[in-house]
Amino acid sequence: MKHRAAVLGTGQTHHRSKRLDVSIAGLCREAADRALADAGVGIDQIDAVVVGKAPDLFEGVMMPELYLADALGAVGKPMLRVHTAGSVGGATGIVAASLVQSGVHRRVLAVAFEKQSESNAMWALSISPPFSMPVLAGAGGYFAPHIRSYIRRSEAPAHIGAMVAAKDRRNGARNEYAHLRQADMTMEKVLASPMLWDPVRYDETCPSSDGACAVVLGDQAAAEASSQPVAWIRATAMRTEPTMFSGKDHVNPRAGADAAAALWAAAGITSPIDQIDAAEIYVPFSWFEPMWLENLGFAQPGRGWRLTESGATEIGGQIPVNPSGGVLSSNPIGASGLLRFAEAAMQVTGKAGEHQVPGARTALGHAYGGGSQYFSMWVVGDTPG
Amino acid sequence: MSQPLHAPLDIAFDYTRSLGPTLSAFASALAERRILGARAADGLVHAPPFEYDPVTAAPPAELVEVGPGGTVVSWSWMHRPLEGQPLDHPFGWALIRLDGADTAMLHAVDAGSADQMRTGMRVWPRWSHSRGGGITDIACFVPQEPEAAAQTVKQPEITMITTPIRLGYDHTVSPGEDSFLRGLAEGRLIAQRCPACGKVYLPPRGACPTCGVPTATQVELPDTGIVTTFCVVNVPFVGQQVPVPYVAASVLIDGADIAIQHLILGCAPDEVRMGMRVRAVWKPREQWDTSMRNIDHFEPTGDPDAPYDTYAHHL
Amino acid sequence: MTDVAVIGFAQAPGERHSPATTNGVEMLVPIFGEVFEATGLAKDDIDFWCSGSSDYLAGRAFSFVSAVDAIGAFPPVMESHVEMDGAWALYEAWLKILTGEAEIALAYGFGKSSAGNLRRVLSLQLDPYLLAPLWPDSVSVAALQARAGLEAGVWTQEQMAEVAVRSRADGAGNPKAVRPRSDGSRSAVDLLAEPYVADPLRAHDCAPVTDGAAVVILAAGDRARALAERPAWITGFEHRIDSAALGARDLTTSPSAASAGAAAGAARAQVAELHAPFTHQEIILRNALCLGDEVRISPSGGALAGNPMFAAGLARIGSAATEIMAGRADVALGHATSGPALQQNLICVMEAK
Prior knowledge:
Chain A is an alpha/beta fold. Chain A has 14 helices and 11 strands. In chain C, about 30% of the residues lie in helices and about 20% in strands. The chains are: A alpha/beta, B mainly beta, C alpha/beta.
C-alpha cells in the first residue's frame, strides 16, 4: 500500500543570525534552488509544495505559504503548510513523504524556514497572556530544570553538556552552511562560559538563526531515474503527547520513545547503535544529546551520557551524533527539523563534504518541539531496504 | 457558560524586513520618487514588481519605470479606517494600473468621498514626507495630477524597511483557570480533579490532558509543597522585576498531581535543592488580584527534604 | 488507491462571541463527544489526528498546542497540525490513510475569530513588503473583487443579494448557524436597500465573524462500512493555489478552484457546500466548478450562516458528507478556501456506493 519514496536532493542556506541580503522569499529560494539543482529536477517537475515554519509571529506574516506561492513555483499546484512547533521541520519532511508514499504525487518539494531576525525569537516565545505569571523567558529557561532532573536521575558528571557543545561546534566548523563554526571550541571553554539558567551555560545553547532547508522527494521511478545516489526513506514516525500532564516524564518523554520504537520496527532496526551509521538529532541545549540517546534507544536509560563521554558520538565514533554541528550550530527554528532530516540524507548519499561520516549507509533524522511533546523522525538509507 | 475572566492582550513589534535585490531596487526607486515594475518572461510588466514570476518562478528579466500616473481598475470605500491604514479619514482602496504596467497595484486613494471614486479615473501618487519606507513612500494616490513631476533626487540604496505590527485581542481564560484565579483573589489555591483518572490539576486546564474530559470537582489545596526541579536564572528578561540570580522552580503543592512554576526566594540560590519543602509567601492582602502574583514567592520551611522517590515520577 | 470515506461529522454552534478560550478546548470537547457517540468510536480508536488553526486568531505563538488537551493524548498519539483551515488537516489525514499508516483518522479545526479584529488580522496574509504595510483589510480586498465582477458583468448586485437571501433561509433551519441567527424573511429588495459597509459590499454580502469548531472522521474500506450505514466515499480530493499578486490575477475567476474541481470531478456533484465568505465568491465558485442550476448549493446556509475561521472549510466537507450519509444525495462536494480573494481552494468530492 505504501509507495517507496526517496530524497532526490537537498539544499540549505548559509545560516546566520541575520540574513539581511535576502527577503523571506529569497531565503526560501536559496535553499529550494540548491535542492532542485542537487536533485537534477526542474521546478516544473514538482507536483506539490509543502512549507514548514514555526509560529507566524516570528516574521509577522500570517500563513506565509500564501505569499510564497509564486516564489516556490507553486502557482497552480497543491501547497500545504505544516506547523508542529520546533519539530515542524521534521513534520514537513514526513508530510512531504506521505504525498509520495500515498501514491498521490511523484515529486514533492518541501521547504522549511525561519527568518527570526525580522523580530526577536525571545520576544515571540515569551508573549505571556493576561493572568499568567512568567517566571522565566525563553526555551532555555523552560528546559533547564528538566536537564537538572536528567543529571540527578542519571548521576551524569557535570561536564557532559560541555563535551557535547564543544563537539557540535567543532563539527559546525566542518559544515560550510553552519551559523556557528568554532573549530577551536573545547570543553574547558564551554565550562568557562557564563551560566544562563543553571545548569545550562551560554555555550551550551543554540543560536538564533535565519535559515532555510529544502528537500526534493521522488517516487521509485524518479529515484531510479536519478543519475546520482538517492536517500531512500525506510521509515517515518511521529508521536504527540500533551505539554503538561500529571506524571509526564520530561526527561524521557513517552511520545519520543514510542515514536522511536515505531520507527525502528518499521525500518527493521533491532539495534540502533549498531545499525545506524549517523544520527542527526535535535539538540538545542547540549544535555539533550545524552537525553535523546536514551529516549531513542541508543543507550539504556541513565547511560546516554557514557556514550558521549566515551567519544562515541564524535565523527569516527561508534554512533556519530550531529556531524553537521546540529541545532547547537544553526537554529532557524522552523527549518531545524528538516535540516536534521536532510543531513541524514546527505550522509547516506555521500554528500556531507567535510562532515561526512565515512561509509554511512543508514542514518537517522530526528526533531522534537513544544514542551518535549511533538516528535518526528525518519530513517534513510542508500538502498530501498 | 458564564463569562470567565478576560483581559486585553496586545502584541506589538516593529518588524525589520530585509528586502533582497529586487525589492531593494523597488524601494530605492521609490525613495527617489520613481516607480519600477518588473518585466516577466512573457513580456508583461508587473507593477508593483514581482520577486519571482508567477508563471516561471524566475526573478524579473528587467525592471522598468512605470507611472507615476495610473488608472483605477477597481475600487472600494473605507468608511471607518482601521489602525495602520494609509489615511485616518474615509478613503478609497483601489487597484491601480500604472501607466506602462499590465497589472494593478493596490493602494489608497484620497478622493474625499465614495461618489468621487470611479473605475477608469486617473490618479497620481502623493508622496510621503519621509523616504525609505518602501511602498509607504507613496502615502496614497489622489485624483489630481501634480503640477510638476516629483523631483528625482538621488538617494542611498534602501535595503530594509520597518513594519510596525500591533494587534489587540481580548484574551479569555478557561472555566478551570477562572475558578483558580478567583480562588487566588481570596488567598486560596483551588485545583480540580479529573473525573476519569482522578488526578488533581493545579491550575486546572481546559480539559484533563490525558483524558480529554473537563475537570470538574474543586479541590482546595494548602499553600505548601516541595521543589521537584528548578534552575537558577541569571538572564533577566524584559519586564522581570526580580533581580538575578533567582530560582525558578517547579513547585508540587501538597495534594496536587502536577507542579506549578514559581519563584524560590528567602534563601541563596545555591541553597535550593530538589525535594526542598517550601511554603508560599503572599503579598499583602490589599494587593491581591485574580492572579498568581498574589503569591510573591515560595520560601523554604526548614523541614527535611522530601525523599527523591516521592517525587521522582513528577520529573 | 484505498477507499476512504467520511463517516462522522460534528460542529460547534457558531457564536459571535464565544466565552471559550482561543485554545479551542471548550469548543472541541463537546463535539469530540458528539462525533464519538454518533460513530460508536472512542479516542483510542483514532489512528491519526490532525488539526487546523492559526496563532494569529489567538495572538499567541503555539496556541494550537493547548488544543491537544481536548484529545487526551496519552498514551501518545500520531498527530499533526497545519496552520490552515481544518479542510487541509483532513487532506493530510486522508494521505495518512492512503499510506497505510492509519485506518481511522480524525481532523478538526477551530477558531475564535472574535478574540481579535479579524478583518485587520487577515491583512497579514498579504505580501509583507508590498501590501501588508498598508493594512488592506480582508473585507476591502473582497470588495475590490466584488466590484471587478460587477463592472465586468460577471454578476449583479441582485444576484449577490439572492445568494444572501437563500443562505439566510437555509441558515434559519440550521441549528449550528451562528447565533443570533439572521432573519430569513428579508427579500433581495429589502437587503439592497441597506447601506454599503465596504462599497460595493453590504452587510448581507459578508459572512458573520464567527467562533466555532468542527470535526470530521475518516475511515478506510471495511472499517468505514462497519462504522456507517452510508459512508461518504471520497472519489476526488484536490487543492490548488493561485498567485499572491492580487493585481496580477483576474479576480473574477478562480483558476485554482477550477483546476482542483476539474481534477476532483466536481461537475458530478448534486449538492455542493461552498466555503464562500462573500456572496460574489459563491458565484465565482459556481462558475469555476461548472455547477449547473440543478445543483443544490450550501443547504447548510454556508459560510454566510456561520464562518468559524479554520473550521468553516472543514464544516463544508462535513455538511456535504452529511447529505450523502443522510440519503439526501448520491454525489456531493465540499469546498474550502484560504487566503485573500479565493487565492487557494480545495475540493472534496464524495459519493455513496
